[in-house]
Each structure stands twice: as C-alpha cells, then as structure tokens.
Amino acid sequence: MTAKPEAVTPRGVTPSAGRDAGVPVEDLTFTGLHESGGRMTTALTPQPDVGSRADPAQEYLGRQLRRLREASGISRETAGRHIGSSEPKISRIELGRTRVKDRDLHDLLTLYGVTDEVSREAILGLASKLNQPQWWHDYGDVVSGWLRSYLVLESFTDKIRTYESRFIPGLLQTTAYAQALVKHHYQNEDEVRRRVEVRQRRRQTLLDPRRLTRAPNGVIEPWLWAIIDEPALHERIGSAAVMREQIDFLIHATRNLHVRIQILPAGTAGLTGVGNSFSLLRLHTQELPDVVYLEHLAGAHFLYDPHEVDPYRLATERIGITALHPSDTVTELEKAKRRLAVRF
Question: Considering the entire predicted model, what is its pTM?
Fold first, then answer.
C-alpha cells in the first residue's frame, strides 16, 4: 500500500472482500463438551495458547483498528498525537494489550475516515462490550477468559455457521442434554448448575426470533446454520429419554425460519476433508471480519486473518454440499429417534 500524507481527508472504508452470504431458534441452548458446546478441536495451523496472548476479543478489535489506520495512511505516531497520547499507546491498543477509551475510539475512527454510522456503531459497540460488565461477568467462576472473548464476539454476530462432529451444537442443546454433558467433566453440583445456566442465558439472548433478518431480495436468511455429523444423534448422552427429548427439540428447531439444520451422513465426513468441529462467526458489519472459533482440551483458538479464515469458509460449503438437504433433516431425525427405541 502506498502511504498517504499524514493530513488525510476522511473517506469511506472499503468493505472486506471474501465474505459469504448467509445463514437462527427460539428456546435453544449453547456451542458442545467445552463451554461453547461440547467440542474438541485443533486449529489448521499451530497457534499460541490463549493464556499466553492478549484477550482474543480485544486483540480482534485492535487488529481492525490497525487495518483501518493503515488503510488511511496514518502512522502510529500521528494517531497517538491525535488522541493526546503516544505511538506506544497505539501499538498496545492494536496488539490488544490495552483497552481503548470511548472518546479516543471516536476520535480515531474519525481520523481513519470511518464515517459510515453502521460501521462506527459496530466498532464502538464491540469496544463497549469489552469495556463494560456483561451478564457473563456474574459467572466469573465458570467462564474462562477465552470463553468471555467468545461470548463478546458471539453477541455481535449476524450469522453463525457451525459444524459439530461428535455432539449436538451447544445452541441447539436441551437443558437435560447439556447437564448430562457437563456432568461428564465436573462433579460439583453447583458448578454443573452454573455452567448450564450460562448456556441457558446464551440461548435466551442469542436465539431470539427478533434476530430474523431478510436479504436485500426480501428472502429470510437463517442466522444459525448447524451441520451435525449423524453419529452425534446416536451417541448416548444421558438417558434414552434425554436423547429423545433432544431429537424432538431439533425437529422443533427446524420450524424456525432463522435456523438451518443439516445432517452429515455417517461415513461421509472424510469426504469433506474436515476432521474437527468449528464455528464461523460473521459479525454485524463488513468492518468486522469473520472469525473462526475452535476449542480444544486446554482452551480455544480464534482465527482472524483472511488466509486462516478462508479455508473454513470453503469447508462450510463442502460440508453443506455433502450433507443431506435441509428438507431431509426432519426425516433423518425421525429415523434417529426410532433407532433409539430399538437400541435403548
């Protein structure tokens, strides 16, 4: 990029390229075995553990501010002077090592030429979520740092695409199913209760029918697109009654216009080239690029860079093509419920 003079004229910011179009359930729950739902995953490329780096959501915001600054040809030194601070302060903000004050953020966005109100409000709203206590802060004993970051980013999503290879996706889990999962890993009853409560709160705040959106052509777009590996329907989590209730819940979920569920037939996961569960989060505006979220036993990874995110975007397309059509989902779920009666 050719640097522009320091005294830049504010201009609109070019939307990020490569964003895909779209894809929402009333009365639903979390994301697998870990807090976001129940999954164990590994990133495509080695990433440092969350515990050794800045807060992932704060780092994500810092990266976007750096991108906007560089796109406008502004140096860190000039940006620092603009808010009455210094180049090191801007560097710490962009690395996610320190939080940015609301007033400073307003001034930086103006300096960087971000004049579109939708874009400004999205970035300011994300920063506010990071700076102000949210409902999950009441569950600090069971909500880890990386999960807090995920909850911040998830609260700003327009669409979530999730692939689950072993469990029912958390946002589609019943309370009984979630309890059975959590009890496999935690024995303390109060801790189990509070962890499940967090999942219930996510369900209530995120899977609201008011999230239903329409594309420019007027077609209703699903907000949650979940692809479930068929074996997850046959994995006994809790009792047979728990699994029957869970499958009935999935059937009910398919009636919601803001939810799309597909079943990946047993034995076909290898054909997609995808071995692990993941979620692809699309945030409110083009100025906040997509995020890939993966969990593992020791924490989680967040991928932000386009060259890291694009393979997962393509993976969702491959899995969606290999999976059964959404119109076949209820039939497959009914079959799974009948098999339960035979097996258990």
Answer: 0.78
